[in-house]
Design goal:
1011 residues, mainly beta, Ferric Hydroxamate Uptake Protein, Chain A, domain 1, 22-stranded antiparallel barrel, 9 helices, disordered N terminus
């Protein structure tokens, strides 16, 4: 008997279901029902589309937990009985149902859904929406682009993949910080390190946004600079998707928390399938991609001798060890190779198990990662993490329970110093690092050995727990209740050990000079969100309504203590053993947040869509007069391609116009800022410590607000072969929380309050996705995005009278600095020339009037994915145009100190070289030396840092293991930061802090086995 596919006809489906439920021994043929014996048997077949076999298609017996998937050749086998209904599904294809008859072979052809946008579901946080029907700006990156990348932080993996999102890696040190801005900087001031950070949600639970190690004294200041990103705790391989919410329509439902955008991270969930195991392993090798060209010994010695000669000094000082004979004048060491030239090795291993049936599924994933550094040490970073997910649906599909737990344990025992700065400044003829016996070389007290800091230890440990549980129950027809609950707990501890052995032993120091520092941060947060949802369809009308309530409580504590003067270094880890104990800082804080929110979505005729969101928030961070704030947005969409006057355009697959307008707010300003606050005064009176006032009470302290507008066009051409979008946005932030200047007679120079300053972010965003080739053996797709962000301080009444006039300029971006305007070098005197803005004949801080913008003019990415049979090549170029500090910022006057310099500084002024780039070398010429700081703080220290970077490239091969059905092995080679095109003069154009370790170039080899 032939196998027949079920049609989509409602009558045919109803007929089939009624007979199969009533008479399980019957099967359906084309024209009638035939009674067959009910018996188990093995059925086999192949699932294909028009281009060939489909691997990973799911074949399930309807209403049971019996299921399987197709192998690499699209083949499957399954035990079934006559009368069973096979459900065949594959993402992006129309699901089919087939009745099992007496046949044993079922070859299935799936039809690709041409209107793919109608099937892709986007996570919008409190609700999900089909991509075709969304009214807001939501960008999505899936596990395909995340799971195998050789990065520790998932934000690194999305750099260049999302328009309007600027991501900068702040340190090449493993476990360092990541800076992210979504559509620019909204808020002024530095009251809190996370002022412009987005809201992070992991499986619906708020996740910390502030970097660790910033608010407790930052023991890692020298090595990690800008703290540790909380998202380091999440393994990229555990993530199913990252959605970034940008406009008012998408973010207003999060109220005050969504002013800077929202990042939704969804971890991988279990799928209805047979039990499946995954095993993945990879090893990464990383190096500094580029060294600076520094002077060799001959060039360096010449510069130093020239400096003394120009100063009229013929007898070299006793501390000029590099040229007075104390050090070998012919010795040469490439310090970049010595100090940052090692290969960092990262080992990654993971094991997963998933499975379940029609009603309950589970997913368990274990990950281990350990990484070394490029510094001359075997110390490094370790992370162990576990992901546990469980889903359950009742048989009547009314009750749904979803739970997700992620836990990670990170540790980092880095050296306490970033050696990059030393590698770029040490004299090339400096002595060897080690004596012949392997001990550190101090060269008779003339050499400060940089490796002495390896005796100094920085360690941090971070434990992060995130638990989410969601209950959903269909109480009435079209109505269900949902409760989202979650807990996030972080425990951060860092230790800095400074034994006396970091000091030259010739000085005779003992453990009495040893010091130990301990800092901790603990945060515990829980959230509960009951919701009521209603959905209904009548005629051409479709409505969806949601109302919910949020309560969030966060408790945080931080402390720092020091111990000095130990009887032995063996006791240095125990501060209680120190003879001097100092409790440097301790704090506790509590944050309460509550809100009520709603969403109303209405669709008419599947082409006119309105989305209205509202939220009323209450925050404990504001004064009693303004504790609550109201926020909301309206989003509209018109699916133009559904109109009859466009139906005849065969090349147009889809077109949508959408716009949104709304208000979001911000309370991301830290706790207790509106209160009278005091701090402990270390000065004592009669052996009693006192309190010193630090801020004044302001009952009118209120919400910052951001008004957002967006208009966009999305369209697809030639059966979704070309997909593109164009978006314009305009965001205005007001009621800026800043320090308002007060008369000195008040005893305070400022009070924290709301300024009428207005900050504007505008921009254009473009995306283009094309399916260039789609055949049986070849597939090629391209993804391109481009953003033009602009940031501007529109107005700031009273700016010129306040202290912030040196920081901000009306009409300019917030991310600016004021510099001296460099006007070249005087060919006669060899002195630098700067513009005298106030014409007083003196160059001083009043002449720092030239504004330089550090925001990008544009940024974007270009990704291509090319597949040939089982081979896949994927590569991503990231590009940006922006300014940054150059090498001039990191160096002093040539020859003035024992500091090596880039070869560019060979172009020094002399009588024979009057049109030079740099001033003459000198040791003691006061006039020239005094110009060092204006030169560093001039626009000559800023240059074009634009670049195009091959951010990521990978090649993989997917193979089927012979004689092992449903088993596949993926082998891949991947690279990160492989190639950079730039005119920038420096070690790396992405650098934020000049002289710190740049992002590393990484090669990764790995394999993933599924069985």
């Amino acid at each position: 008997m032939k196998t027949h596919f079920l049609t989509k006809s409602g009558y045919r489906i109803a007929l089939v279901l009624s007979f199969t439920l009533t008479y399980p021994t019957y099967v359906v043929s084309k024209d009638n029902l035939i009674n067959l014996d009910y018996q188990d048997k093995t059925i086999i077949g192949t699932v294909k589309d028009k281009d060939g076999p489909l691997m990973g298609a799911i074949i399930q017996i309807k209403g049971t937990d019996t299921a399987t998937t197709t192998d690499i050749n699209g083949k499957y086998s399954l035990n079934a009985s006559n009368g069973d209904i096979l459900v065949i599904s594959y993402i992006g294809y129309i699901t089919k149902e087939i009745i099992v008859t007496s046949d044993s072979i079922y070859n299935i052809n799936l039809l690709q859904d041409q209107d793919i946008l109608s099937e892709v579901v986007i996570n919008a946080g409190y609700y999900s929406v089909k991509d075709k029907e969304r009214t807001g700006s939501i960008a999505r990156v899936t596990s395909k682009d995340l799971e195998f990348q050789p990065v520790n932080n998932p934000l690194q993996a999305i750099q260049g993949r999302v328009p309007g999102v600027d991501i900068i890696q702040q340190s090449g040190v493993t476990g360092g910080g990541i800076k992210i801005e979504i559509r620019g900087q909204n808020f002024m001031g530095s009251m809190n390190s996370g002022r412009n950070s987005p809201l992070y949600l992991v499986d619906g639970v708020p996740f910390p946004s502030d970097a660790f190690g910033i608010n407790n004294g930052s023991l890692a200041l020298n090595i990690l600079q800008n703290g540790i990103s909380p998202l380091n705790s999440i393994s990229p391989s555990d993530i199913e998707s990252i959605e970034i919410l940008k406009d008012a329509d998408a973010t207003a439902i999060y109220g005050s928390r969504g002013a800077n955008g929202v990042v939704l991270i969804t971890t991988k969930k279990a799928k209805s399938n047979k039990t499946q195991f995954t095993f993945s392993s990879s090893v990464d090798f990383s190096k500094v991609p580029k060294f600076m060209n520094m002077m060799n010994t001959q060039q360096y010695i010449q510069m130093r001798e020239e400096a003394f000669a120009n100063s009229g000094i013929t007898t070299y000082p006793i501390n000029a060890y590099d040229i007075n004979g104390a050090w070998d004048r012919n010795r040469y060491t490439n310090w970049q190779k010595q100090l940052i030239g090692d290969t960092a090795v990262s080992k990654n291993i993971s094991f997963g198990m998933s499975g379940g049936g029609a009603f309950s599924t589970f997913n368990i994933k274990l990950n281990h990662n350990e990484s070394t550094t490029v510094f001359p040490t075997d110390k490094g970073y370790k992370r162990n993490s576990v992901l546990i997910n469980f889903n359950h649906n009742s048989k009547n599909n009314k009750l749904q329970i979803n739970t997700s737990t992620t836990y990670s344990d990170q540790s980092n025992d880095l050296p306490a110093t970033d050696f990059t700065s030393k590698s770029l400044t040490l004299a090339p003829n400096a002595p060897s690092l080690f004596n012949k016996d392997g001990s550190l070389n101090w060269e008779n007290g003339t050499f400060t050995n940089p490796l002495a800091s390896l005796e100094e230890t920085y360690e941090n440990k971070i434990k992060t727990l995130n638990i989410n549980t969601q209950f959903s129950y269909n109480v009435l027809k079209n109505t269900f209740i949902k409760v989202n609950t979650g807990i996030t707990s972080t425990d951060f501890e860092e230790v800095l050990l400074q034994p006396h052995t970091i000091i030259n032993p010739a000085l005779g120091r003992t453990s009495a000079f040893s010091e130990s520092k301990l800092a901790t941060q603990k945060t515990e947060s829980y959230i509960i969100e009951p919701q009521l949802n209603y959905q209904n369809i009548w005629g051409k009308n479709k409505i969806s309504f949601l109302i919910g309530f949020t309560y969030q409580n966060t408790n945080a504590s931080a402390s720092q203590m020091r111990g000095k003067n130990f009887s032995s270094n063996a006791l240095i880890r125990n501060i209680s053993a120190a003879k001097e104990k100092i409790l440097a800082n301790t704090s506790k804080s509590k944050y309460n947040y509550t809100s009520i929110f709603s969403r109303l979505n209405y669709t008419y005729d599947d082409k006119y869509i309105a989305n209205i969101t509202t939220r009323r928030d209450g925050s404990s961070r504001f004064g009693e007069n303004n504790r609550f704030g109201n926020f909301g947005a309206v989003g509209l969409a018109w699916i133009v391609s559904e109109e009859t006057f466009l139906k005849d355009l065969s090349f147009l697959s889809f077109a949508k116009l959408r716009t949104s307008y709304g208000i979001t707010g911000s309370d991301n300003i830290g706790n207790y800022a509106y209160l009278d606050t005091y701090t402990i005064n270390n000065s004592k009176y009669d052996d009693e410590v006192g309190l010193a006032p630090t801020s004044l009470h302001n009952p009118n302290f209120k919400w910052e607000k951001t008004t957002k507008f967006e208009a966009a066009l999305e369209f697809s051409l030639f059966k979704n072969t070309i997909n593109s979008s164009v978006a314009y946005y305009n965001n205005r932030s007001t009621d800026q929380l800043v320090g308002l200047t007060l008369p000195s007679t008040t005893g305070f120079d400022r009070i924290t309050g709301n300024s009428p300053a207005v900050v504007e972010n505008t921009g254009w965003e473009f995306t283009l996705n094309t399916n260039n080739i789609n055949s049986n053996t070849w597939r090629w797709s391209t993804n391109f995005n481009l953003s033009f962000p602009k940031n501007k301080l529109v107005s700031y009444p009273g700016l010129e009278e306040g202290t912030q006039s040196s920081t901000y300029v009306i009409g300019q971006p917030l991310n600016i600095l004021k510099f001296y305007q460099y006007q070249g070098i005087d060919p006669i005197t060899g002195l630098y020339q700067f513009k005298d803005f106030n014409n007083d004949g003196i160059i001083n801080y009043l002449d720092q009037q030239l504004v330089k913008n550090f925001n990008p003019e544009f940024l974007g990415g270009l990704q291509n994915t090319i597949s040939y049979k089982n081979f896949t090549l994927d590569f991503l170029f990231y590009f940006t145009k922006r300014d940054n500090y150059n090498l001039n910022y990191g160096y002093n006057v040539p020859g003035s100190i024992m500091q090596n310099m880039p070869i560019e500084m060979l172009d020094r002024w002399s009588i024979d070289n009057p049109n030079s780039t740099y001033s003459q070398a000198t040791y003691s010429n006061t006039t020239i030396l005094q110009q060092a700081m204006p030169f560093k703080n001039s626009d000559n220290s800023i240059s074009d840092a634009s670049y195009i970077r091959l951010k990521n490239a990978s090649i993989s091969y997917l193979m089927q293991i012979p004689k092992l059905p449903n088993t596949s092995l993926r082998i891949y080679l991947q690279g990160q930061n492989l190639w950079t095109i730039t005119s920038y003069k420096g070690i790396d154009p992405e650098f934020i802090s000049y002289g710190n370790l740049p992002p590393l170039r990484t090669y990764s080899f790995g394999a993933s086995l599924i069985f």
